[in-house]
Amino acid sequence: MVHGHDPAFSEMVVTAGEVKELVDYAKSKGAKGINLVGLCCTANEVAMRHGVRMAGNFLQQENVVLTGVVEMMCVDVQCIFPALSALTDCYHTKFVTSSPIAQIPGSIYEEFKPETAFEQAKKLVRMAIDNFQNRDAAKIYIPDTKQKATVGYPCEQIIKHLDGVANTHVDELGSYRPAIDAIKAGVLRGAVAIVGCNNPRVRPDYSHFEIMKELLANDVLIVATGCAAQMATKAGLLQKDAKYLCGAGLRRVCELVNIPPILHMGACVDISRMMLLASGIARDWGVDTTQIPVVGCAPEWMSEKAVSIANYVVSTGIDVYLGIEPQVKGSSQMMELITEGTRAITGAGYIINTDPHELVKSILDGLEKKRAGLGI
Ligand code: SF4
Fold it and tell me: What keywords were assigned to this record (predicted)?
């Protein structure tokens, strides 16, 4: 199991797990092979690049250990429960930390160094294989819930799919014109980037699901990253079949372009991909990024990184809708700054509502306001 955020460490562990010598070693120990799985944003990274299966999002990290079949959990930084150390002690699972800034008492510490990364990863995979024999059959419980998903839609893939509908690939950057035409025609009302975490303050994944469902029904295309994207995976929304949830316009676009209604763009740090998408759409439209009917939404945000990601989106001139109140409510000045004050500087701000249905309503109103501003 790889877990965390730094794609370099997980990339090495996954690559080591694909080495024939180690796969043969696992078989010599009575295993069918090496099963690598991912958690949190690292899961998004290795799913996109290697097809490694996702085991769950943020609030499921303990559940994964509870299956009793994890020989080793390799973590790097952020979103790692310190309690994993005590929990893995109750099982045969080896818990490996790898970053000097995120060592956890009780873990095996293997400081990840770029120059020896692959050798270190192979050593860890071998250690995990040796641990296979220590599984306790009485503690094994694997839920049979599985979902298929199509993952990995960076900007280049989106353009490639749009090119399949109408070849407008005018330069090396490609063009979003078919998508823009669909927005102008009203077939698509706009797009929403749904990002971020699970938050223990609310029922996990509930807001994500409700918001996604309602936006799809209202012909709004969704791009997703982070634990929100993993929720969409679990709910089967990253499959082309999920178009049954869409309004007639979005359904037609998904059929024509041959895409699922929610496009998986990667880990939470891949917000940069989303901002490239937004700036590319604005460029091809010939308007400013602040004008296009595209917004960000973090229904269950939790981490400090989610805060910086959302600030990046607001700084780019795109409104962000939050489903969890920010912890600055004690200051009326701060609240005024983040909801209205930034508008004078960047053209965007935060809109906050803890009721997912009301949040969708304000997102739809926001998109329609942008459309009206563009005269469409
Ligand atoms: S989306 Fe949030 S909770 Fe999930 S891995 Fe990223 S920072 Fe952590």
Answer: Iron, Iron-sulfur, Metal-binding
